[in-house]
Amino acid sequence: MKSPAWHKGRLRPAAWLLAVMLMWAASPVTGADGPYPGTNQVNTRHGFDELVVRLERAIADHKMGLVAQASASRGAAARGVKIPGNAVLMVFRNDYAVRMLEASVPAGIEAPLRLYVTENPDGTASITYRLPSAVFAPYGSGELDRMASELDAVFRKIVHDAAGR
């Protein structure tokens, strides 16, 4: 009788991929803040659709631009598939873009900044976002750090207003 492939220290590619996927799925998520520093999650009492509308309003109220929006759940619904609500709202403003690029052209890949809305099992929704200061910190520019600090305050206000706090 032959020994199983994993016993000999070899896994067939499909078995190896399955094993990795199962380990990944079983891994606990540590903390609510995600894998990057400066990530914040705010749980709200609002439902998903209501929270997206509240965020859109707060973005406009704080004179920022909603550059784009993407939602896998809405795309899935258009195909007749139901998944928990999620949407990414991409936010920035041209005067900040000009300042960002004057400070660091490579930092341009970070704009627009994102707010991520997810539907919770209890029907409420949460907002997850990275502080702009954390997003731009790796570029090591004092001017960029000053701009990002201003944006930290703006993003906190947007999230605070949308969450109804």
Question: Explain this structure to me?
Answer:
By secondary structure, this protein is an alpha+beta fold. The chain has one domain (31-163): TT1751-like domain (TATA-Binding Protein), CATH 3.30.310.70. It has six helices and five strands. Strand 4 (113-119) and strand 5 form a beta hairpin.
Please tag this protein with its features:
165 residues; five-stranded antiparallel sheet; TATA-Binding Protein; disordered N terminus; 6 helices; alpha+beta
What can be said about this structure in brief?
The protein has 165 residues and is of the alpha+beta class. It has helices spanning 13-26, 48-61, 72-78, 94-103, 132-136, 142-163, and strands at 39-43, 65-70, 86-92, 113-119, 125-130.
- Please give the alpha-carbon distance between the first and last residues: 67 Å
Tally of helical runs: 6
Helix/strand order, N-terminal first: HEHEHEHEEHH
What is CATH's topology name?
Answer: TATA-Binding Protein
- Major sheet strand order: 1-5-4-3-2
The average pLDDT score comes to 85
Structural class from helices and strands?
alpha+beta
Which helices and strands occur, and which strands form pairs?
Blueprint: H1 13-26, E1 39-43, H2 48-61, E2 65-70, H3 72-78, E3 86-92, H4 94-103, E4 113-119, E5 125-130, H5 132-136, H6 142-163
Antiparallel strand pairs: 1-5, 2-3, 3-4, 4-5
Helix pairs in contact: 2-6, 4-6
